[in-house]
Amino acid sequence: MNTDAKNYITTKEQCQSLIDKYNCVCNQCGGKIEPAETVDNIDRPTYWAACLSCGIYTHGVDLETHLIAKFLVDEKDYVPYRHMDKPQKEDTEKYEHWRRSQIAGACYTVRDVIGYYKELQEGKKVPINAQKQ
């Protein structure tokens, strides 16, 4: 009997199953989400969803949300994190970090707007301007 075997809180297979279920992409780069071996807050071995390219743990967002967020940042100059100084594009590494952070922030805005829009369509919310009438 191997006494060194790890008892994972979430196994690699369980983590992959959840990733497959939601079919999300990284909220920063739009890349693949994969199981990453780590430990939880009390040092137990587990797997968490992560983007290995960005080096972050994330459950990600759906591809449509990411593409809209990327468009807003790249084409419409949307900056959700105004506290971050925008580096020059020539400083490639810093600029790319800033850009990916902005796209991730925009994903949350897009997700919220899409969710609110769906609630309006389903009649679950009253349009804001209708409340004033």
Task: Describe the protein.
The structure is a single chain. This protein has about 130 residues and is α+β, with helices and mostly antiparallel strands. It folds into 2 domains: about 55 residues, no CATH class; about 60 residues, no CATH class. Helix content is about 45%, strand content about 10%. It is built from 4 helices and 3 strands, in the order H-E-E-E-H-H-H. A 3-stranded antiparallel β-sheet has the order 1-2-3, covered by helices on one side.
Strand content: 5-15%
Following the backbone from N to C, one meets helices and strands in this order, namely HEEEHHH
| Share in helix | 40-55%
Principal-axis shape equals flat
Number of helices: 4
Report the count of strand segments. Answer: 3
Q: What structural category arises from helix and sheet content?
A: alpha+beta
Number of domain modules: 2
- In spatial order, strands of the major sheet run 1-2-3
Q: Unreliable stretches, pLDDT < 50, 5 or more residues?
A: none
Sheet bearing the most strands, described? 3 strands, antiparallel
Gyration radius from CA atoms, angstroms: 19 Å
Q: Tell me the distance between the termini.
A: 73 Å
Mean pLDDT metric: 91
What key attributes describe this structure?
single chain; 133 residues; alpha+beta; 11% strand; flat
Topology:
Elements: H1 12-22, E1 34-39, E2 45-51, E3 56-57, H2 63-76, H3 92-121, H4 128-131
Antiparallel strand pairs: 1-2, 2-3
Helix pairs in contact: 2-3
Provide a compact summary of the structure:
A 3-stranded antiparallel beta sheet has the order 1-2-3, covered by helices on one side.
